[in-house]
Each structure stands twice: as structure tokens, then as C-alpha cells.
Amino acid sequence: MKKILLCFLLLLFIMGCDRYKKMAIGNDGPIYTIVDDSLWAHIEDHIRPLVEKEIRTPQIERIYYFEPIPLSAFKDNHFAKNLMLITTLDRTDKTSQYVKRTLPDTAIQMINRGETYFFPVPDKLAKRQIFMVLAAPDEEKLIEYLQTRGDEIFQALNQAFINRQFDQIYFKAEEKALTKEIFDQYGFSIRVPHTYMILENNPRERVLQLGRTNPFRWITVYWQDGGLTSVLEERWAVTMRHWLSLNYLDGTYVEKRFLTHRVVNWGNRSVYNIRGLWGHPEKTMGGPFSSFYFYDGVTDRTYFIDVTVWAPGQTKNVYLRQMELIASTFFTNENVLREYIK
């Protein structure tokens, strides 16, 4: 009984400490990386392409990018949102010795057995932080890992970003009454963040638009009854986006030469997506957009959900990805509504 009580008190102590951890600071892009210069010189060309993905907004913006720092700068950066330590077990330099000391014996054993070389830890030194250690027995094994499984690093960073953004977007408050109002009227809704409001509500045209300022962000939903085989085609999506541009987005246009196409998963739902740029024929305006389209069997409708950003002079990729996450909360099930309203 005494042992159980001690364990319980220890758990409370750990949870209590975690509650009062400092919030991670800085931008979402940089990955502050402690690694010996000689090792970094050998792996840099292998690891950067795996992680430093780009979005055109219209500037080329890297989603994440490495910022190698000396060990002496760790203290100044240990509350950053993205931290990474890299070494090999056969190295003896001071930086590598420090990195190895952060690994528990069980991790060292896993590395030696070749089971895993990558250890992502959420909220280790600060809340909403991802702390990653990458270590292999030697340089050859490290490069082999990067060539075969290195995408795990991007996936860990991206999942940390998603978790962080959901916390930030819905941390203080969300417009639950507005979420319910939309569902009651149309049989679908999204989790509406605080400060978003309805800009257009046109059931005749089957268009609903929400937005906010500072910077300007718009979410536009269009729907029509039944499923469309053409919804599988990028051409249909571009035509739909052009129609929305002319009628509900101030007569803007789509820069077709910069369009990209992909399929994403919203939970169990596969969704088609195009990303691209928009501009205005008369005003000095432009920026990125992202449009999602899919068929929903619950409502027997085809939906087209567009998110658009106008943030002159600012980094835009985080705003765009934030809005993509908001769009991904789309639902047509009343049980989901009940959970949100709680």
C-alpha cells in the first residue's frame, strides 16, 4: 500500500510539474539542431531534402528548416518549438558526448540492436514542443537510416505542428453556437474558431463563407446534391475555384501555372486537394489558397471547401496550414456536434 501511495504521489508531482512548464516559443519553422560540425557536413545533403519542404505563397517558403547551433547555444534555445540532437555512438567530440548522455540506457540498447535511431518526445522541455534525438551506431548507419526511413522526421515535425495548432486555434474559445447554427441549417459544419464570423450565407447558391481579419482569412463552402464522378478530376476543382473567385472572392483569379494536386486524409475520409495562388486583376492583392473536394454519403452531397489567405508582408504558410486544419474539422454527423458542444 505504501509503495502504491508513493507511486501515486510521484505521478501527481510529475503531472504538476508538467502543468507549469513554460510554453514553447518562437516560430514553427526553424529546427534548432545540436550536432557536431564534422558530422553535419556529411549528413546535411541527406537530411535537408527530407524535411525542408516548400510552399509557394507566392514567395517560396520552407515549412521547416534546420538551424544548426553550437552546444553553448542550447540554453538560449531550449524552449524552441522544434529541437533536435544528432550524433553517432562511436563519436567522442563534446557535442556527441552530450547528446549521448541525454539517451537512457534502453535507447542506447535499441540503437545498438538497430531497432530504431529516432526518438521524438513531445513537451519534453516546454509545452507544445517537439524534442527529437537522432542517433545511430556510426555515420554509415545514420545515412542509411536517412535514405530509408528519414521521412519519419518530417512526420514527427508535422504531427507536432498539427497538435500545436489545434491547441492554439481552439485553446481559449471557439464559436460553438455558430458551429451548431450552421449544422442546424445545413446538416454540416466545422469547428468555428473564436473571432470567425459568417460573411456570406446563401442557401440558394449553396454557398457559406466565414472569415476574419488581421490577416484576412476566408473559408468558403460550396455543395451540391449527389456524387459526381468529375469530382475526381482536378479540372472540375479548378473550374469550381474559378467560379468562387469571381462570385464570392472579390473577382479574383487563379494562377493556374502554380497549381499542385494531392490526396489527404481527414480521419477516415479521403479528400482531394489543390493548392495554388490567387491574384486580383485590378488591386495589388494575392496570396495562397487551398481547396478540398469530396463526396459525403451521410448527406449525399459533393462538397468543395476553399481556404484563402491574404497577409501582405507576412509569412503565410502557417496561416494557410492553420486554415487547412480548420477545414479538416468538417463533419456531417450529429454525434460529432454533441462532442464539440460539450
List the secondary-structure elements in sequence, H or E: HEHEEEHEHHEEHHHEEEHEEEEHH
Strand content: 25-35%
- Helical segment tally? 11
Question: How many domains comprise the coordinates?
Answer: 2
In helices, the fraction of residues equals 25-40%
Cα radius of gyration in angstroms: 23 Å
Averaged pLDDT: 91
What is the fold-level CATH name, i.e. the topology of the largest domain?
Protein Transport Mog1p, Chain A
Write the CATH architecture name of the largest domain. Answer: 3-Layer(aba) Sandwich
Biggest sheet: strands side by side, in what order? 8-9-10-14-13-12-11
Q: What does this protein structure show overall?
A:
This protein is of the alpha+beta class and 342 residues long. Helices cover 38% and strands 30% of the residues. It is built from 11 helices and 14 strands. It has helices at residues 2-19, 37-51, 74-77, 94-101, 105-112, 139-149, 151-170, 176-186, 234-248, 317-327, 334-341, and strands spanning 30-34, 54-56, 60-62, 65-69, 82-88, 118-122, 130-136, 197-202, 207-212, 216-225, 253-266, 269-279, 286-296, 301-310. A hairpin with a 7-residue loop joins strand 6 and strand 7 (130-136). The longest helix is centred in the middle third of the chain and has 20 residues, at 151-170. The chain is elongated, with a radius of gyration of 23 Å. Mean pLDDT is 91; it is low at 1-16.
